Amino acid sequence: MGDDRKVARVLLDRQGRTYAEEAGITLADRPAPLYQLLVLATLLSTRIRARVAVAAARELFGAGYRTPQAMEAASWQDRVDALGRGHYRRYDERTSTMLGTGARLCLDRWRGDLRRLHRDAGDEPAALRRLLTEFPGIGPTGADIFLREAQVVWTGLRPYADRRALAGAKRLGLPGSAERLAGLVGPTDFGRLASALVRVALGEESAGEVTRAAAG
Fold first, then answer.
1. Cis omega before residue 159 (within 30°)?
2. pTM above the 0.70 mark?
3. DSSP readout, 116-129?
4. Do 143 and 112 meet the contact criterion of CB atoms below 8 Å apart?
5. Using CA atoms, how far apart are residues 6 and 29, in angstroms rounded to an integer?
6. Which DSSP helix (H) or strand (E) runs through 48?
7. For 95-151, what is each residue's pLDDT tens digit?
8. In degrees rounded to 5, what are phi and psi of residue 193?
9. Closest CA to 143 of 42, 55, 57
10. How many Å apart are CA 69 and CA 113, to the nearest integer?
11. What are 166-215's pLDDT values in tens digits?
12. What is the CA radius of gyration of the chain?
């Protein structure tokens, strides 16, 4: 367990930012940042590099589309242009449509406040996934991304480790369950650890380099 804790600490030191932080989202249990996380999860759900999805999210937010009201009010072409500036080009037109439709659903169903979705589902992952996958572009993978990042502020979800996070843990020789992984770090660090494990699974971080640094 001591060696596993050291691996986890090295990983956090090297890759300690969540994807939300990388996208410029100051995550809090408030309507705007939760909506921004939904946008990021939508972008990360396609078969495109995570860094491109993050760059596209930053472009959308930089253009002012930080709320469902602003996203819906933007023209379809404005959204396409922002996605293009982030080099999110293969899926830009379809994604622009999904973001507009999703913004309208957020406003109609949840009055622009995803805390209402959380209150409806509680901290039950299956219920949260079911509601999240009603948004266009959010499938099971997108719901997992959202919940993995949201556990930073929806603390009742902790510890939440999706398939990709567990795959990263396997590459590092770490425990294969969220509960055992949670024993390696403090509660407030688990969301960051889960994101860092995903980076290992996606090849953004070298499992070998992390384990060698931990052994040194």
1. yes
2. yes
3. HHHHHHTT-HHHHH
4. no
5. 31
6. none
7. 999 999 999 999 999 999 999 999 999 999 999 999 999 999 999 999 999 999 999
8. -65, -45
9. 42
10. 11
11. 999 999 999 999 999 999 999 999 999 999 999 999 999 999 999 999 99
12. 17
